Amino acid sequence: MILDDLAAIVGAGHVLGREQIETRAIDFWSSDATRALGLVRPASTAEVSAILALCHARGQVVIPEGGRTNLVRGTEAEPDHILLSLERMSRIGEIAADSGWVEVEAGAVLQRLQDHAAGQELRVGLDLGARGSATIGGLLAMNAGGVQVMRYGSARAQVLGLEVVLADGTVLEHLTPYAKDNTGYDLKQLFIGSEGTLGIITRAVLRLHPQPISVQTAFLAFEEFGPIPKLLGTLSRGLAGTLSSFEVIWRDFYDLNTEEGRLRAPVRRGLPYYVLCEAEGFEPEADAARFERLIVEAMEAGAVDAAIAQSVAQRDAFWRIREDFEAEMALFSEMGDFDVSLALEDMESFGRDLARAVDEQLPGHSGLHVFGHMGDGNLHVAIGLPSKDKKPIAERIVYDLVAARRGAISAEHGIGLSKRDWLGRSRSQAEIAAMAAIKSVLDPQNILNPGKIFRAAGSAPV
Amino acid sequence: MILDDLAAIVGAGHVLGREQIETRAIDFWSSDATRALGLVRPASTAEVSAILALCHARGQVVIPEGGRTNLVRGTEAEPDHILLSLERMSRIGEIAADSGWVEVEAGAVLQRLQDHAAGQELRVGLDLGARGSATIGGLLAMNAGGVQVMRYGSARAQVLGLEVVLADGTVLEHLTPYAKDNTGYDLKQLFIGSEGTLGIITRAVLRLHPQPISVQTAFLAFEEFGPIPKLLGTLSRGLAGTLSSFEVIWRDFYDLNTEEGRLRAPVRRGLPYYVLCEAEGFEPEADAARFERLIVEAMEAGAVDAAIAQSVAQRDAFWRIREDFEAEMALFSEMGDFDVSLALEDMESFGRDLARAVDEQLPGHSGLHVFGHMGDGNLHVAIGLPSKDKKPIAERIVYDLVAARRGAISAEHGIGLSKRDWLGRSRSQAEIAAMAAIKSVLDPQNILNPGKIFRAAGSAPV
Predict the structure, then answer these.
(1) Which top-rank group of organisms is this from (chains A, B) (predicted)?
(2) d(CA A201, nearest CA chain B) in Å
């Protein structure tokens, strides 16, 4: 019995059986019971290696999990699968403060690392709502995005070195703390964003960035889309690398969240487009003067209303308008939600065509909300469905409009099981075949999170 | 005859035979004649695809070349190889100025793209001495570094989208202009830095950055190494993302270039360490004031001498001390030169141990120069060899000291043929086997630049 053999590797207390895990929900988003043969919790890279060598030899499927906050059913298992959790591998190494890096085990929770770094006036270049649960291993496996991508890049850009265990137990250790390394193929890139299908990330060396000490935040309103990309260009230049957020919000979501009795509207309601932007710097007075000057220029260049936050409380209030989904959840009893990338040049027409298609093809819908990290080319779309069974129609509408603009059907959430059948809207058959070929050579038994992202060539449907 | 079949694809005028290419030097660094069966110059991705499909079917080796400025014998061919040049594919697309990107064909020369971007007050995040010859395809295939890595990252970080032709002619087209894309494996990462061994890069979408309008440059001298990483930390924070260079120079190179009759010494000679640092911003007056304040702080924190360039001419003079190799070339009749990465924390001991080992193991040497892009963890080492046959001793000295510190035997130049036999100093056998496995699945006939980086498993020695 494989659970006994796993117990021989990690100790009996660290293998949970079917009964012990079926009381857990699958993930943060689903209350369905976890189905799996068992869950194993190694304490070291050597134990991960031994577990995978065993499972590889037996053809035993392994589903890795981190904080189970992913949005794409990325850790869903079948009843005969083994779950692998690295929660016991959560050590955070000593911080190299001047050169800005830290070595960390994959099971460490992001917020703990953030707190650790803050103690040295440093910042992890990665932040998102799930920070209190999401683990470093999961965040790297998903190439997580979040609210700091514009400034620091995605999770991928934070990684200096990586240790990965391959499906057969082979350990690829390359825990290097420097930015430049042209010693052959940059193997770590392959595992970052591969959603646990190519190897198990066990440790990483991450960059740390100086923690800014000043913050400026503005809300702007626009009658037309045209000036918005121009404003982004102006702020990118004018703020000299300190621009950290540039969010765009279409009317309906802004108006909903600023209705009477909800949040206070910082700028006029009822306009087609809103921008929430923020800069973080190191010289409070000079930063504030520069920011104010640029916002005044933005008014001259086409914004019809603007407000700069005058306090931390006001800044928080600005962000709540973007991040509060209570009113949306009350309005949309059934929702289709999407996370796409587009060229900035295509966003306006996408929003317009999307509104028309939703009206035409989803009669009785309860609304359409579009907003997102425009500075990263990333829009989030939420559609209030007339009924749950209309979700495939919403998917087709969004993904067809994205495909027609060479957009990405996932900007930051990943593919998992949820978007697998739509992957062809963003990637060609040749690309998917190349992915499958790489998977087949690194995981010939197809034991690592099989069926996520794409169906493995020649495998039974999962 | 394969040349005739290639001519049928690209036209007879675009296939050069053995006699037409043997008058060319192999590359910029070697005056040896190019040996190869021929050279083919396609005009489109479709032609590249047809060429590779043909060569794949015939088992014909193809050696891709760009501007032939690489430093690692990366485009060296055997007499029965075909050279592939993309010089006819050099179109530069329209610049998206506000969102900051451009689509470019792989044969475009970097400097042309830089000039093109400058016309829109934008900058390619990539610059190096070979800018007038190096092509975008070659720069991406080598993941080139250069003098702007600290600010913008390596070549890899400039790439938003990529088109690659695989060994069998399959085209992987993913020319996307946005930063966030989690639609399955990020295949482009595999080809960037793979030195032409996994596929032929035909087109790319590159980021463009706002062109700074102010520049501040300082030279500092130190009695000890300790304050230097601290200064880097201070400047990273204090300059808020505008720090663009942080170069460290060990005494002997500084003293040589500032000898009587050579360049003027901006700070005292004869000290163990020098730093040349530069910031580029968008607010000339405020930037200059801030920079000056930080350099004054640096003096208080351990620098024993410092100078800030007061004019463009003085700035150029500062940089010549770092970039002028005439005196070195006159002094070192035979040279071993190296390009390594190390953690900042290991650089001081590396320099010390290296000096001792060179004195002990290379008696009669003519000197040791250490300097480099410290902000990137990248040091360049030049050793004046007593005789040419001592190069392997120099290599062993440097690479053993690098390996003992988990350093990279190549920070930015790559591996090619020159460093292939030392790859094991930086990468484990498991890592090299993983590279070979990936190569074997993407290029099963081993026709693309075989033998570069590592010897292909099961192939005849090249």
Answers:
(1) Bacteria
(2) 15
What's the mean pLDDT when you consider all of chain B? 95
Nearest chain B alpha carbon to A430: B172
Interface test with B, best of A45, A181, A182 (most B CBs within 10 A): A182
Show Cβ contacts of residue A254 under 8 Å, excluding neighbours closer than 6 positions: A265, A269, A274, A321
Looking at domain A101-210, its CATH class is alpha beta
**How many degrees, rounded to 5, is the angle at CA B440 between CA B434 and CA B446?**
130
Q: What is the nearest CA distance from A420 to chain B, expressed in angstroms?
A: 9
In 3D, which of B411, B261, B422, B188 has the Cα closest to residue A435?
B188
* Cβ-defined contact of A189 to B189 (cutoff 8 Å): yes
Expressed in angstroms, the distance from the first to the final Cα of chain B is: 23
- Nearest residue of B to residue A169, measured between CA atoms: B430
| CATH number corresponding to B326-425 | 3.30.70.2740
CATH topology of domain B214-323: Alpha-Beta Plaits (3.30.70)
> Using a CB-CB distance cutoff of 8 angstroms, which residues of chain B are in contact with residue A441?
437-438, 440-441
* pLDDT tens digits, one per residue of B43-82: 999 999 999 999 999 999 999 999 999 999 999 999 999 9
The ipTM is 0.95
Q: How far apart are CA A364 and CA A362, in angstroms?
A: 6
Shortest alpha-carbon distance between residue B409 and chain A (Å): 7
- Identify the CATH assignment for B2-85 out of 3.90.45.10, 3.40.50.300, 3.30.43.10, 3.30.70.2190: 3.30.43.10
Listed by start position, the domains of chain A span 2-85, 101-210, 214-323, 326-425
Contact A182 B415 (CB under 8 A): yes
